[in-house]
Design brief:
The complex is a heterodimer.
Chain A lengths: L4 E14 L2 E14 L3 E5 L6 H8 L8 E4 L2 E4 L2 E2 L5 H7 L4 E4 L3 H4 L6 H12 L5 H13 L5 H4 L9 H13 L5 E5 L7 H18 L2 E6 L2 H7 L2 E6 L2 E7 H6 L4 H9 L38 H5 L5 E4 L2 E3 L4 H6 L13
Parallel strand pairs in A: 3-9, 3-10, 7-8, 8-9
Antiparallel strand pairs in A: 1-2, 1-4, 1-5, 5-6, 10-11, 11-13, 12-13
Helix pairs in contact in A: 4-5, 4-7, 5-7, 7-8
Chain B lengths: L9 E12 L2 E13 L4 E5 L6 H8 L7 E6 L2 E2 L5 H7 L3 E4 L3 H4 L6 H11 L5 H14 L16 H13 L5 E5 L7 H18 L2 E6 L2 H7 L2 E6 L2 E7 H6 L4 H9 L51 E2 L5 E2 L13 H5 L3
Parallel strand pairs in B: 3-8, 3-9, 6-7, 7-8
Antiparallel strand pairs in B: 1-2, 1-4, 4-5, 9-10, 10-12, 11-12
Helix pairs in contact in B: 4-5, 6-7
Classes of the chains: A alpha/beta, B alpha/beta.
Main location (chain A): membrane
Pfam families (chain A): ABC_tran, oligo_HPY
Subcellular location (chain A): Cell inner membrane
Chain lengths: 340, 336
């Protein structure tokens, strides 16, 4: 690591007490994010990626959630050890978050300017008319046309993409060091999704923020991230620099995910299915959680849980057959030629 | 060598669907024409408000078209009385985006699949049971699942039930409305493969509606792109992907996230600006001109007609070179 970590997470574990028993949603997860860097956490429903984001900000109600871990160090402070009052000064101020559904995250009966001003009042020293001026500036910064006119509109006056822009304006109002974006474009149309991603990435550069992007979409991750962390059933199975991961995925789950996705320009009669379904977190197999669906698994995989091993380039992979997989040529689908 | 002329499984001609709403009249579908032959998949791609759901509803007769013709295996289904319509209804089925919302939570899988058979005159109980069993087998559900309730299935399995139900009455066409959008990637692959297998075995035609061009590009034989109520481009899958002519199609392809960080990073992309205009007040002329990077003065005045650019490639753009207005537009709309 050349850059010092802004966020350093070590052995984060989140358990939930449920009627079905205690289940582990996030299992000893470690990662870090350097200043200005983008880390993407990718995985399917229930893999623990959103719970991880919520746990970092301590947004999970306890009970039923139980958060433990060695530390979640942010700017040198362990967030797990902070009082709730001290945590409130971190939340929305040093770390901001945007969600998939901006409509449910915005207050429907207050103007967007008011909601930005609320954040400015809480996290900056601005007061008086300067607050409204800054709110309009922020709306302009997130490329909302005619921000003067739109500032006093209510959320329902905006389209889905414009609402997400408003959410981003609120999030960056306090000039946070880390932005957590949980599926920020999933509910949006294709062209609007690309606009919002591009906006987030350009604001990140402008403000020098770090970005933690949570996504199910490998395409979005490939377009945006510096490093990628792949989760399955609450555990990290692979973490690699983005170029390495997509050029040469190592974990069988990562490979299977990539091959299951339709890829324009690649002609395949059938997609490679991943057989079966994600195991219940309340009833994980004793060994590798992916073993029951894995084409490479043998009886050892069913018994032994693999540990993460370094693979060079700062990457790591948790697979008992890593040596064999790393040695073989990636079975990439044959390119038909992609249009420029 | 000329193939015998085949009756299209579905033919849609000059279809208009308008609604009267509190905010004034809304033309959700504004003169759409296409045909799908048996065993073919037509992909329909568009963003919110483009009219793709209204088009789907009109085809499965959940809304009444304002004007235009809808023919299923050559029979016009518009303007029929209730009885005639009921006789043709089994020919057009639908698979929905949210399988949980489309299945009665209190009905067991067997009942869900048996109901359409019962309603359409399959009288013998044994015959119905046998048909249910073969439907379940066709979509890869184990026979013992017959007594399960929808919540006892995974999302992918529920969508299999939705597909089995759509197949129950040997339809000519299945309208698939975002059938994999609510599913995780690993389950998407299972359902897409299943749809393809079913089509090979039954020669059913699909109208496959999606906002996701990469899914459509995988499954469709031809692809239609819709923008604010109109088809702006229609072409064989490969042509559309390799040589798109309409600026909106190009914008969609450019915006598509790719799994290739070496060549495709969002920071380096040129993304079409602006929001989708309100369908209540669509722009005059070409409806895309307000966002189009190459629009000229004429585009704001004249609406371009869907014209033939050769080899079954239709495009509605004044600036698409090579496209000539088809003297007989209906001929161009026949499947190749």
């Amino acid at each position: 690591m050349t850059r010092p970590a802004l966020l350093d997470v070590k052995d984060l574990t989140v358990r939930f007490r449920t009627p079905a028993g205690r289940l582990t949603a996030v299992d000893r997860l470690s990662f870090n994010i350097a200043a200005g860097e983008t880390l993407a956490i990718v995985g399917e429903s229930g893999c623990g990626k959103s719970v991880t984001a919520m746990a970092l900000l301590r947004l999970l109600r306890s009970p039923p959630a139980e958060i433990s871990g060695s530390h979640v160090r942010f700017e040198g402070t362990d967030l797990l050890a902070l009082s709730e009052r001290a945590m409130r000064d971190v939340r929305g101020n040093r770390i901001a978050m945007i969600f998939q559904d901006p409509l449910s995250a915005l207050n429907p009966v207050r103007t967007v300017a008011d909601q930005i001003i609320e954040s400015l009042k809480r996290h900056t020293s601005l007061r008086g008319p300067a607050l409204h001026r800054r709110a309009v500036e922020l709306l302009d910064l997130v490329r909302i046309p005619e921000p003067h006119r739109r500032a006093d509109d209510y959320p329902h006056h905006f389209s889905g993409g414009m609402r997400q822009r408003v959410m981003i304006a609120i999030a960056i109002a306090a000039n946070p060091r880390l932005l957590i974006a949980d599926e920020p474009t999933t509910a949006l149309d294709v062209t609007v999704q690309a606009q919002i991603l591009k906006l987030i990435v350009s604001l990140q550069k402008e403000f020098g923020m770090s970005l933690l992007l949570i996504s199910h979409d490998l395409g979005v991750v490939a377009e945006t991230a510096d490093r990628v962390l792949v989760m399955y059933a609450g555990r990290k199975v692979e973490e690699r620099p983005v170029a390495d991961l997509f050029a040469r995925p190592l974990h069988p789950y990562t490979r299977a995910l990539m091959r299951a996705r339709p890829t324009p320009g690649l002609r395949r009669a059938l997609l490679d299915e991943i057989p079966g379904i994600v195991p219940s977190l309340a009833d994980l197999p004793p060994g590798c959680a992916f073993a029951p669906r894995c084409a490479h698994a043998d009886e050892t995989c069913a018994r032994l849980q693999p540990v993460l091993e370094g693979v060079g380039g700062g990457g790591s992979v948790a697979c008992l057959h890593l040596d064999r997989l790393a040695g073989e040529k990636p079975r990439a689908p044959v390119l038909e030629g992609v249009p420029a | 060598m000329s193939a015998p002329v085949q009756t299209p499984a579905l033919e849609v001609r000059d279809l208009v669907v308008s609604y009267r709403t509190g905010r004034g009249p809304l033309s959700a579908v504004d003169g759409v024409s296409f045909a799908i032959r048996p065993g073919e998949t037509l992909g329909l791609v568009g963003e919110s408000g483009c009219g793709k759901s209204s088009l789907a509803k009109a085809i499965v007769q959940l809304v009444e078209p304002t004007s235009g013709a809808l023919k299923v295996e050559g029979h016009d289904i518009t303007g029929l009385n209730a009885r005639e319509r009921r006789a043709l209804r089994p020919k057009v089925q639908m698979v929905f985006q949210d399988p949980m919302g489309a299945l009665d939570p209190r009905q067991r899988a067997g009942t869900i699949l048996e109901t359409p058979l019962k309603l359409n005159g399959v009288r013998g109980k044994a015959e119905r049971r046998a048909r249910v069993a073969s439907l379940m087998e066709a979509v890869g559900l184990r026979p013992e699942f017959i007594d399960r309730l929808p919540h006892e299935f995974s999302g992918g399995q529920r969508q299999r039930i939705g597909i089995a139900r759509a197949l129950a009455l040997d339809p000519a066409v299945i309208v698939c409305d975002e059938p994999v959008s609510a599913l995780d990637v690993s389950l998407q692959a299972q359902v897409l493969n299943l749809l393809r297998k079913v089509q090979r075995e039954t020669s059913v035609a699909y109208l496959f509606i999606s906002h996701d061009l990469s899914v459509v590009e995988h499954i469709a034989d031809r692809v239609a792109i819709m923008y604010l109520g109109r088809i702006v481009e229609l072409a064989p899958r490969e042509t559309l992907w390799r040589a798109p002519l309409h600026p909106y199609t190009r914008a969609l392809i450019e915006a598509l996230p790719r799994m290739d960080p070496g060549v495709s990073r969002i920071a380096d992309k040129t993304i079409v600006g602006g929001d989708l205009p309100s369908p209540f007040a669509p722009p005059k002329g070409c409806r895309f001109h307000t966002r189009c990077p190459i629009a000229v003065a004429r585009c704001a005045i004249d609406a371009p007609a869907l014209s033939d650019a050769g080899d079954g490639h239709l495009v509605a753009c004044h600036l698409a070179s090579g496209a000539v207005p088809a003297p007989n537009a209906s001929a161009a709309l026949q499947p190749a």
